[in-house]
Amino acid sequence: MSRMKKNIGLWGRLTSVVLILFLTFSFAMFQGGFVSWFIFYMSLPFTIYSVLLALYPIQHIVASREIHTTQVRKGGSFSATATIYRKTPFPLLYTVASEQTHSPSLNKQMAGQHQKMVVPGFRKISSWTYVIDQMPRGEHVLEGIHLEVADFFGWVKKTVLLPVQQTILVYPNTVDIVYRPMESRYDQGTMAAPFTLVKDTTMTSGLRDYQPGDRVSWIHWKSYARTQTLRTKEFEDRQSQELFLLDDRRNSEKFELQVELVASILQSIVRANSSVAYLSVGRNRNYFPLVQTEEHLQRIMYHLAKVQDDLDKPVDQAIGRELQQMNTSSLLYVTSQLSMDMVQSIRKNAKNLSNCMCLVVATKGENLLAEEEKVHQYARSKGFVVKRVSPENFATVFTEVSRQ
């Protein structure tokens, strides 16, 4: 239907141009004289060009795009060069080119900007470079180059979308977090540590075959001298449980900060040669049973680049079944709002849980409401560690907790 309207509009404009030509010719024929024929001959090139432009096959133009920015972080700049190729050197005058995307956040960022007017003339190849600042996080699909060409006076206008589909992944920002376990105790203690990510390298429990990525200091050189086979020492874990990271994707103005905090935590754990299980709960359940290597981290970052705040039911209802299946004693819960129902759900469904830390994301200078304070106090009374974190103290989230 839209294409039919476009064709009707084009032929309507073309009819108007032909009518202008006919009127000027009729005026010259009936009026006679130098002035009337001068008007006709002056309008003749413009009307002929408009007719030819209406017949010019603009859909045969081909476009390409070269992306200069290989990896983009939220708030960063994206740069690319777009090029159009034509087979016929028909003179094009006012040509407005712009990127077309169906991403709402990217459209909002590009509103009224990043349009380029070029005058290709007879050139078969025309290119231009553009920069988009303050890129929003997400998966953005560039559908193609939108071209709009017009004649001298705008009598005839033609538009076309040159399909050049490419996907841009804008990853969340991360903060370098200094990872430091809160506490280190052995299994014989009365309470396990909230984080189980450190091995006691003074207590060797056995040997195993060497695996790529093992530290050189862990290699058992005496065994290598005897067998000429690399073997790695295994150590007693300081704690026997693994860390489970959980975040909810409820709709919130602080969701972007929450994503950045989760990405930073996961990055710090992996770079500390530790492991964690990660569950992201929204409309869809995204579960990563083991996050330990850079490859695992890249998969998580891909998820965090696309994730949206799409949780459409109370978080305690969405997570209850998952908590029952969770086989861990340490839980790190990241949210934008801690609810009483969620605290009760964790206590009810997480049977083997010994430690739970709740990180509640807050904006700088945000005041804690009385109802929220009540929930936090209730969670602390049940043994939970509750901490409000804002962007300025993301980097010290572990070290500050360890001093509490």
From TrEMBL:
The keyword Glycoprotein does not apply. Keywords: Membrane, Transmembrane, Transmembrane helix. Signal peptide: none annotated. Pfam families: DUF58 (PF01882). InterPro entries: DUF58 (IPR002881). The chain crosses the membrane at residues 38-58. It comes from the Bacteria. Residues 207-351 form the DUF58 domain. This is DUF58 domain-containing protein.
